[in-house]
Amino acid sequence: LLLGVLLWAPWRALHGAPLIELSGDQDFQLFLQRNLEFTRKIRGDVAALQRVVCDTFQLCKEDELLLVRQDLDIAQAPLEQCHRRTFQAETCFSQIRAGLRIYHGSLATLQALLPGHAGLVETLQLDMANLSSNIQQQMEDLGLATVTYPTENQNPLPTFSSNFHHQVGSFFILANFQRFLETAYRALRHLTSL
């Protein structure tokens, strides 16, 4: 419950965020609706992988793993630009794209851990790349500045000292990614209401 309150609190400040130039654009609203659905699908796929990690390794509760987390170097993509009172679509979209890129690479660690679910991981990575591409295209259509990332992944994969750390690291990659997606979803949904 506390986490839900903490995740919700920054959104209370967004109601006055000015983005009038985008609000009446039908193409932009269509983009938002399509990508809200796309983000919801990605969240569902991440939840499915979280259930697999829970069922396979009995790693289900974050609070039980916090001590192990301290020993792991797990990237958590920032999305503070999607929370700010001075919300700007350009900076929020850029952070969403950068985060998708980070998690795209991090998910490769799950393929080695869950070879029987490699297809789901690959589908998820493809969906993430498509969502990032959709956002980039929309930013270009709106005349917003974009960053083009190289096709090869520049972020090194996390390394783990043991199989258990690999399992716990994968658990936290998915948990962080799920929180990231929830915030990105809220940002897109907020834009639909302007």
TrEMBL record:
One of its GO terms (cellular component) is extracellular region. It is found in: Secreted. Residues 1-16 form the signal peptide. GO terms for biological process: immune response; positive regulation of myeloid cell differentiation. This is MGF factor. InterPro entries: 4_helix_cytokine-like_core, GCSF/MGF, IL-6/GCSF/MGF, IL6/GCSF/MGF_CS. Belongs to the IL-6 superfamily. Keywords: Disulfide bond, Glycoprotein, Growth factor, Secreted, Signal. One of its GO terms (molecular function) is growth factor activity. The gene is Mgf. Its main location: secreted. Pfam families: GCSF. It comes from Polioptila caerulea.
